Amino acid sequence: MSHSLLQPVQYLNGIGPKRSKIIGRLGIQTVHDLLYYFPRDYNDFSKIQKIAEAKTGDSITIQGTINGIQNRVARMGKTILEVFVSDETGVIAATWFNQPFLVNKFRIGDRLFLHGKVNSYKYLQLLSPEYEIISDRQAGGSGWGIIPVYPLTEHISQSQLRKIIHAAIQEYVDLLEDALPLPLIKKYNFLPVADAIRHIHSPPSMELLNRAKNRLVYEELFCLEMAMALRRYRIKGETRIPFKAGANVDAHIRNIIPFTLTKAQERVIYEIREDMKSDKPMNRLLQGDVGSGKTVVALYAALIAVANGYQATFMAPTELLAQQHFRTLQKFLSGSQVRVCLLTGSGNATHKKNVIAQVSDGGIDLIVGTHAIIEESVSFKKLGLVVIDEQHKFGVLQRLKLRKKGASPDVLIMTATPIPRTLSLTLFGDMDISMLDEMPPGRIPVKTFWVSKNKEKAAYDFIRGEISKGKQVFVVYPLVEHSEKLDLKSAITEAERLRNEIFPECKVGLLHGKMKSAEKEQAMADFKERRYDILVSTIIIEVGIDVPNATIMVIEHAERFGLAQLHQLRGRIGRGGKQSYCLLFGTPKTALSRDRLRTMVNTSDGFKIAEMDFRLRGPGEFFGTRQHGLPELKISNIFHDFSLLQKARKDAFEIVCRDPSLSAEEHQKIKTKVVEMFKDRLDYLL
């Protein structure tokens, strides 16, 4: 990258220190940042119409001359600015309400373009139209026709930002060098990068805009997939002693598992066993819907490591989930010689110190725990397998930290949040993927209902009837964004309301994140032992809590949850072979919220739900891609640009296969660009 492209923007003509601070809020520090600050949309004003053609309700673009300006105060102190514009066929008023400062933008005699919706009051009007003064354009604006629309911050307008970017393009764009290897540019007939940047900011036509966007989207996705390929080949390039996992080991493990595995579990165990027998470290993602039997598969993998004289560790995102996994694994291993322990952040300091010492000297085979496992004080004698549950709750760097506790250990990452294929290629493009797409026999699908306000009483009567039959109920309150206190108050208030007003004859418990670990454990134990009929909880129960007798899940304000969360919560019930019910209480105010609730009612397929969630919320929000160590995408959208993503992935992996260190001269520039893209996340690549 040329030194000039790294020049701070404050030294560009017309910017200076004050304006550079404003632009800095948009993430623009250098000339390069400015050139790569892409429009979020475009307005096509290339078709100019005559004022005489204007019809009420139409959106039109006109070109004319200002022949009158009126800025007046109406009733209630409202200001109305009217700018009268004429062409050879007539006159129209451009009207703005409560924007008196705009009067300084216009002068009689100025020629300008206007685009807006036609309204008719006493005369034809364009209400709050977009405008471009033609003299601005001649002084170096972006030009009229297809106009870029940028994300803005306070104290800078579209026309000001367009001028700044236009000036930067004029002076600096030819300093940009193509990072893409020449064979790829020829293969796809891509525009040179300088032309692509020119046309993305000032498109001469829709065709050239599309070609520019195509080139820049591909390049961004290619860099992303190149990082995935480099990481995958680095991990696969490591060697270690292969595990023995023959018929003898397999028979011993199966003796510990007290039930017949599903075909899906058998298939995934085969994939994992082959990985572990290899001299290359396993790096595998295990996807499976809630209740599909991931824990047993992970146990099988852990026991292969233990049978070979290695330790295995099982990391979960919350203490509740870690404790549940510990109890489950203890139950499986009760008749074996496998030594298992629990390590979390809370609890007795002396006990914790003792556990850490045993882990260090090899006295423990299987360590179950939370983030406490990756603390510096924890070291393993011989770590052979890392299992991470509910991976989206951890950042990628935390996963790497755990992996570095051993010498190239096998890694198995599990998720009950189904990930659409479009997203798994980017978030987990460096991993092999296994799917548990079959439920164990005896699981009865949960019936789901959307309960509107006028049906709440009937729902409460139904719940009362189920409780009288000995069933139990979860009632979940959503997290209120940015306010744990408000969330906590909601759950406590709801518990009181249910206890005193709705179900006075029932025993109502409470569980929330602010409770001490021992209190949470006690609340869950009491619910499991049926000391409560109803447990009111916050989102804390989203993952891992298993109460077979709980057959009803009530989700209050269901419209506030994402689809993935709703599906996770629903998965907490239906585990005991009895018909279970999920009741979504909610009054959604948007079409998006209504679509979410309808999707939940109509399907229980986690992968369909994940795909819908991805469509509705977009990649940025689908459980927060930032924590996965991925850079923010500036122009591409991995859902809408999936076909380009697939091409970029194939091309990137082919290049890294031929040149794993990107040492060839033709790959130097793309290597630099990938490192630049991941500059704050280099641990991801190393």
From TrEMBL:
SUPFAM superfamilies per record: Nucleic acid-binding proteins, P-loop containing nucleoside triphosphate hydrolases
Superkingdom, natural source: Bacteria
Q: Which reaction does it catalyse?
A: Couples ATP hydrolysis with the unwinding of duplex DNA by translocating in the 3'-5' direction; ATP + H2O = ADP + phosphate + H(+)
The protein's matches in Gene3D superfamilies, at most eight in alphabetical order, are given as: Nucleic acid-binding proteins (2.40.50.140), P-loop containing nucleotide triphosphate hydrolases (3.40.50.300)
Answer whether the UniProt record assigns the keyword DNA damage to this protein. yes
Alphabetic keyword roster: ATP-binding, DNA damage, DNA recombination, DNA repair, DNA-binding, Helicase, Hydrolase, Isomerase, Nucleotide-binding
This entry's Gene Ontology molecular function terms read: 3'-5' DNA helicase activity; ATP binding; DNA binding; hydrolase activity
The UniProt record lists the EC number as: 5.6.2.4
What is its EC class? isomerase
Domain Helicase ATP-binding intervals: 275-436
Which biological process, per GO, is one annotated for this protein?
DNA recombination
Instruction: Give residue ranges for domain Helicase C-terminal.
Output: 455-620
PROSITE patterns in UniProt: HELICASE_ATP_BIND_1, HELICASE_CTER
Q: What does this protein do?
A: Plays a critical role in recombination and DNA repair. Helps process Holliday junction intermediates to mature products by catalyzing branch migration. Has replication fork regression activity, unwinds stalled or blocked replication forks to make a HJ that can be resolved. Has a DNA unwinding activity characteristic of a DNA helicase with 3'-5' polarity.
Family the entry assigns: Belongs to the helicase family. RecG subfamily.
Q: What is this protein called?
A: ATP-dependent DNA helicase RecG
Q: Identify the species of origin.
A: Kuenenia stuttgartiensis
